[in-house]
Amino acid sequence: MVPVIALVGRPNVGKSTLFNRLTKTRDAIVAEYAGLTRDRQYGEASWQGRTYIAIDTGGLTGDEEGIDAKMAEQSLLAIEEADVVLFIVDSRDGLTPPDLMIAEHLRKRNKQALLIANKVDTLDPDIARAEFSPLGLGDAIPIAAAHGRGIQAMLEATLGRFPRDNAEEEAEPEVVAEGQEPKRIPGPSEKDGIKIAIIGRPNVGKSTLVNRMLGEERVIVYDQAGTTRDSIYIPFVRNDDEKYTLIDTAGVRKRGKIFEAVEKFSVVKTLQAIQDANVVIFVMDAREGVVEHDLNLLGFVLETGRALVIALNKWDGMEPSQRDYVKVELERRLLFANFADIHFISALHGTGVGHLYRSVQEAFKSAVTRWPTHRLTQILEDAVQEHQPPLVNGRRIKLRYAHLGGANPPLVVIHGNQVEAVPKSYTRYLENTYRRVLKLVGTPIRIEYKGSA
Ligand code: GDP
Ligand code: GDP
Predict the structure, then answer these.
(1) Rounded to an integer, what distance in angstroms lies between the CA atom of residue 52 and that of residue 162?
(2) Which domains, and CATH codes, for the chain?
(3) Which of 348, 196, 200 is nearest to 265 (CA)?
(4) Of 103, 105, 145, whose CA–CA distance to 121 is shortest?
(5) Ligand with the closest atom to the CA of 201
(6) What is the dihedral of CA 187, 188, 189, 195, to 10 degrees?
(7) SS3 (DSSP) at 107
(8) Which end of the chain has fewer surrounding CB within 10 Å, N or C?
(9) 211 φ/ψ sector (left φ>0, alpha ψ -120 to 50, else beta)
């Protein structure tokens, strides 16, 4: 499971500066969902082969009864969701009373917390360490978020103990000779069948869809213990031999547990489920059309490269004119996800739900097929013949052969000369060619270049 790191501390200590540095915040997901309101920002990042989720919070002032109550609540929820809390203090301000209160809270919650002294620009790090030792959280790790100093050591202390992504399948980086097959391609484990995450904003119908999908199927286990932030994993078999595991972020099968009331929709849960899935069924509410938060979440799905099937739910009882409007909207706003099948369904009545499986199967197959090196190289050669890469400094870029470097999403590694000069438009041309020739459906594809010595 992808670790979650929360940044907490008083306002102005530099949390956002650090967050932006960690996530490069291109697609940070701002939590503005009903009930979550402002002040929590989520971003995905990666350090030395470890993907993690960072949560930025508005800040704790110690005035939790007053106007800052809402902000405090958000910070406290982020602390609950986190595996590790980075408690940021400001070494220029020195130790303040709110810092003591925050430390006390972290101790009470028994959270793994690291003390981070920010803004140690020119300050002696030893002075920062001594200054904050009364917090009782061990030695502060000195950083200067604004200048990028100390970040590596901080990440080592934070993430070093977590396994790398695909750790069990990882090997020495292997050199693949021309024309040879790579021995091992990291990919999803298939013992539990296809892992499907049901993702979407609150109230789009995820719970209803999960119940509908499981309604007639043979569910093997469904009552797993879990904490607030865990999705529920439900393995089941369809048509006697199709194995799936549904990742249920809505938590329908956990009815009656008290924490359900606290927060039904959790961004962390959603992001982790996407990371852990082979295929995402992305649910939208046809009656509301495509809204900003849909695009936000969908952007994250694309970023992870997971296979994707889109379900426009609540299609029942809609006027024909309304339906036409939604279809036009989809075409206009979901262009960036146009590799995915779209289904118009009614989770409530069951209409169209069965057809989702065919798309899930196809998307999964596209995402995990092990294409042989000679096939990928042949496609490359044909593509280059059809349309040469440009000249750089009077020399033509040479792309010599290609092999598969990963699955779900498929990663095509292309070897050649001057590969750092390949223009984006040419990469897009190759992507489209691979997509067309390999008949990829429902999955993004990635291309990486390796220069030859
Ligand atoms: P937040 O409220 O905790 O999210 O704090 P911000 O990230 O908004 O930062 C508050 C202020 O501290 C901003 O003016 C930042 O530029 C500044 N700041 C952040 N990191 C550093 C640092 O390493 N050194 C210095 N001198 N200033 C910093
Ligand atoms: P979730 O928050 O995404 O899990 O959404 P729910 O499954 O709890 O559904 C939210 C509301 O939408 C409930 O009142 C459902 O009955 C309703 N709903 C779900 N699917 C459909 C559908 O296909 N058609 C209609 N008309 N209502 C639906």
Answers:
(1) 10
(2) 4-160 (3.40.50.300), 194-254+264-368 (3.40.50.300), 373-451 (3.30.300.20)
(3) 200
(4) 145
(5) 2
(6) -170
(7) helix
(8) C
(9) alpha
How far is 423 from 184, CA to CA, in rounded Å? Answer: 29
Residue with structure tokens 């020119």?
Answer: 122
- Could you tell me which residues come within 8 angstroms of residue 152 by beta carbon, excluding any fewer than 6 positions away? none
Cα gap 31→42, rounded to integer Å: 7
- Give the three-class secondary structure for 367: helix
* Both tokens assigned to 215: 């309604």
pLDDT of residue 221: 47
Task: Name the residue of 203, 206, 316, 323 to mutate for ligand 2: max ligand atoms within 8 A of Cβ.
Answer: 203
Atom of ligand 1 lying closest to residue 144 CA: 23
Distance CA 45, CA 5 (A): 10
Please give the ipTM for the structure prediction: 0.75
Give pLDDT, residue 144: 95
Confirm or deny that 120 is annotated as ligand binding: yes
Could you tell me which residues come within 8 angstroms of residue 337 by beta carbon, excluding any fewer than 6 positions away?
298, 302, 308, 310
Distance CA 452, CA 373 (A): 17
Contact 250 CB / ligand 2 (< 6 Å)? yes
For residue 42, what are the β-bridge partners?
A: 29, 55
pLDDT value, residue 32: 43
The burial of 26, by beta-carbon neighbours within 10 Å (0-12 exposed, 13-18 middle, 19 or more buried), is given as exposed
β-partners of residue 398 are 417
Residues of the chain scoring pLDDT < 70: 24-40, 62-71, 166-192, 216-230, 251-265, 453
Closest by CA to 369, choosing from 298, 427, 445, 308, is 445
CA distances (Å), origin 90, targets 34, 84, 106, 154: 32, 19, 18, 15
Cα separation, 112 vs 215, in Å, equals 40
**Collapsed DSSP state (helix, strand, coil) of residue 368:** helix
Tokens describing residue 388:
């040469």
* Nearest residue to 45 (alpha-carbon basis) of 23, 61, 64, 73: 23
CA of 90 from ligand 2 middle (Å) equals 46
Residues whose CB falls within 8 Å of the CB of residue 60, separated by 6 or more in sequence, listed in order: 8, 9, 10, 68, 71, 72, 75, 98, 101, 102, 105
Tokens read off for 73: 């609540």
Q: Residue 188 is which amino acid? A: P
pLDDT given for residue 8 in this prediction:
92
Task: Specify the pTM.
Answer: 0.74
Query: Contact 174/403 with Cβ under 8 angstroms?
Result: no
